[in-house]
Each structure stands twice: as C-alpha cells, then as structure tokens.
Amino acid sequence: MDIRDQVVIVTGSGQGIGRGIAWEYAKREAIVIIAELQEQLGMALEHELLSAGYRAKFIQTDVTNVTQIELLVAQVIEEFGKIDTLVNNAGITIFKSIFDCTIEDWDKMMNTDLRSVFLLSKAVGKEMVKRKKGAIINIASNHVLATLPNTEMYAAAKSGVIGFTKSLALSLGDKGIRVNAISPGFMDTHHHRTWLTQFEQPDVVQAHINGLHATRRIGNPEEVGNMCVYLSSSMAKQMTGANIVLDGGLSTRLYTSQYE
Ligand SMILES: NC(=O)c1ccc[n+]([C@@H]2O[C@H](COP(=O)([O-])OP(=O)(O)OC[C@H]3O[C@@H](n4cnc5c(N)ncnc54)[C@H](O)[C@@H]3O)[C@@H](O)[C@H]2O)c1
Questions:
Q1: Model's pTM, two decimal places?
Q2: Hey, what's the signal peptide range on this chain (predicted)?
C-alpha cells in the first residue's frame, strides 16, 4: 500500500498493540514516530526498528500532558516537515467496581484514553489542515458495542472516542483529513498472557475464549497494524467516520448458552 515515506505518529507504541502498529508501518517504509511514555520501551523499539533498517524516532511523550503533545508535534514538524498519520493508541485499563473507583481513577482513565485523543487530534490536525491531507486513527475497543460488569469507566472513555471520531470526520472531511476508529477485542499481548496466569488452567480458559470467537482465536497486534496501514493508504480514501470492529466476531454473538 502506498504509505512509503509517510510520517506516522503512534502513541503508546512501546509495547502491545501500539508496538505491532509501529512495526507494520515501518515494514512498509513509513517514518515511525514512537510517542511513548516509558523511555526504556520507546528507546528499545527505536533501536529494534533502526537495526532492522527501518526509519523510526522515539520522542518521549505523556499523552495526558498538553505541553508535551505540543512539543511532540513541533519536533516532528521541524525534523520531518509533515505528519501524514496520527494513531491515537495509548491507553490504560482500569477495571473495578464503581464503588471502588475514585475520582482520580476516573480522571486518569478519561485523560489517558479520551482527552488525549482530543488534544492530539487538535495539535496534529492543525498541521494536517495546512497540507489538506491526513489520516487520524483512534484505537477504541469492542467494549463500545457490548461490555462487561465493572468496566464502566473504560466503556465510557472508548464510547467517547467513537463519538469524537464521527464528529471529527465530518468536521475535517472537506479538508482532506479522514478520521476512523478501530475497535479491537481480545488481543494476544503480554497483558493477556499475564491475565491468563491467574487461572489454575490457563489453557482451558484460553480454549474457552477462543471458542467465543467466530474465528476460534484471539487477535494480534499485527492485525491491528495492518488495518491502520490500510486506513492510511489511498485504498481507504472513501473511508471516514467508521468504526472497524476487529474482534474475530466476538461481539456479534447475541448470547452464549449450551442451548444455542
Ligand atoms: N489489548 C487488548 O486486548 C485491547 C483490546 C481493545 C482495545 N485495546 C486498546 O488498545 C490500546 C493499546 O492497548 P495495549 O493492550 O497494547 O496496552 P499496553 O498497556 O500493552 O500498552 C499501552 C502503551 O501505552 C503507553 N502509555 C500509557 N499511558 C501513556 C501516556 N499517558 N502517554 C503515552 N503513552 C502511554 C504505555 O506505556 C504502553 O507502552 C489501548 O488504547 C487499549 O485500550 C486493547
């Protein structure tokens, strides 16, 4: 796909899904900006991508900090002259009972998963408007379609991302900027593997989870990266305001029962 030489910012790309997204862009000869909070992770990915012969730059960024976001954008523009794609991927997960959730939890969740999308889209969007060109991709979640108990804050933040995506797509459509969301489901990341270790028989739990998917397996970060690459390319030029669900059919199931 024609994304060679694109300058692409991927937030939270030091590990997990973001890391997979960064690799998929790098492999297709884009210039990847690793906008990651954790220095060690960002440096390590930059080193790996450069060692593999790809182009990448780590710029330590806290997406909850407006000053750092402005510095990120200024630095990328100064060094590379443009931003073609912004992937708002950085996010945290706080799953607990509403009675245990504090205002600090709420603010942290919203600032990381939702306000960051607003701040980054605004700062990067201003640059994209100048060139009348760009793609913004927001990583939401299949929790926007169907959710679980004790995930209220996460479901609310991600649902906010979808509403934001749709409105921004309408606002920037005539300025050559497309805005889309991707909603992944279970992903094979270190978080998932750590989560499985709490169970006595992780293999049994994984087999059960796999069985809930139409594809009979969970997804992986590369697949999210491939979808991002597509959304950045001219193949997706009529695609904007969409929420692409990438969960192997998990959220299409009406209910789970032995009587189905
Ligand atoms: N893993 C899943 O199963 C799954 C499913 C659906 C959606 N998602 C979404 O995908 C995105 C990535 O999830 P993941 O599982 O890879 O998470 P992760 O925790 O493995 O990675 C998130 C990365 O974001 C970084 N980060 C956190 N706060 C940041 C901040 N303030 N500024 C900059 N970087 C920050 C972390 O350091 C980390 O490197 C999130 O938005 C998440 O909600 C994940």
A1: 0.98
A2: none
| pLDDT, tens digit, 9 for 90 and up, residues 17-71 | 999 999 999 999 999 999 999 999 999 999 999 999 999 999 999 999 999 999 9
Pocket flag, ligand 1, residue 251 (CB < 6 Å): no
Give φ, ψ of 187 to 5 degrees.
Answer: -125, 140
Type of residue at 134: G
Q: Which of 92, 138, 213 best tests ligand 1's pocket when mutated (most atoms within 8 Å of CB)? A: 92
The owner of tokens 């990120």 is: 72
Contacts of 164 (CB under 8 A, 6+ apart): 114, 117, 118, 121, 138
Nearest CA to ligand 1 atom 32: 62
Residue nearest to atom 13 of ligand 1 (CA): 17
| Token reading at 64 | 């909850």
Q: How far is the CA of 225 from the centre of ligand 1 (A)?
A: 14
- Architecture of domain 7-248 in this structure: 3-Layer(aba) Sandwich (3.40)
Using the mean position of ligand 1's atoms as its centre, give its distance from the Cα of residue 11 in Å: 9
**Residue position matching structure tokens 């100048």:** 130
Q: Give the distance (Å) from ligand 1 centre to CA of residue 139.
A: 9
Q: In this structure, are residues 53 and 28 in contact, taking their beta carbons and an 8 Å threshold?
A: no
Q: Report yes or no: 24 and 50 within 8 Å, Cβ to Cβ.
A: no
Whether 154 is a known active-site residue: answer yes
